[in-house]
Protein 1
Amino acid sequence: MKLSGYIHSYDWTQNERANSLEDLATIGELEKAAVIDSDFVVILLPGGKGSHIELGIAIGLGKKVYLYSPTDEIYEFDKTSTFYHIQGVEKFVGTYDSFTHYLLEMELN
């Protein structure tokens, strides 16, 4: 996505392992600010609790959300979340490469 002219507002993979509650607070503030500053938010599943909190912040702020899942579990009633199916959440199931193409198509139009 960076090569397509988009700015990645926050890359959690660059975090060092948090060793204290202060570290967690700092990371949380950075992640919250990134969601606030984003034009849209991409959630990659399977995600942890942080991903789902970011999803909630994005939905609460009225941000467009792209939800990627490599499997169709998001459509299985006993495995899905109510928030995956609300207005403003665009769901995609498939390969990561096809998702990135889809995302670019959606945002370029």
Protein 2
Amino acid sequence: MTTSSLGLIAGLLLGVAAAAGGFTGFLIALVLGVAGYLLGGQRDGELDLSALLRGRGRG
């Protein structure tokens, strides 16, 4: 299991624990799951978040 998959699972579990139920709880779990997946992918080298976060140069 890759780190990004573990991050996804951890984020989903934290979301469920943080907000137990309802549509708001679903959205929180979804956001935390995506964040966990992205951070895990960055750690594994599958994703390059710095390329997404850096601004475009002017000129």
Protein 3
Amino acid sequence: MWIIILIVMAILAANLPWLSERLFLVRDPGEEGKRPWMRFLEWFILYLIMGGIAIALEIRATGGTHAQDWEFYAVTICLFLIFALPGFIYRHDLKHLLDRARR
């Protein structure tokens, strides 16, 4: 059950930077809005936070962590990138089409 909750949390966290105009859902970035580099930085920090949560769940479940090589982290960052795809597509393609259709 915990793994399903972790995956759902990761999908939500990966999409947050593109679905919200606030920085980490707290700070207003100003009149110019969120810059693309802010969104990618927020996405990467959320990746690190989700990794920390996953490590904490692994420690709780098994009493320790398993050693991982660079391949594991390359796969997890790519998976987190794929999780972010719906929010990215919404922000850069679908939102503009929906705004034009409303006018």
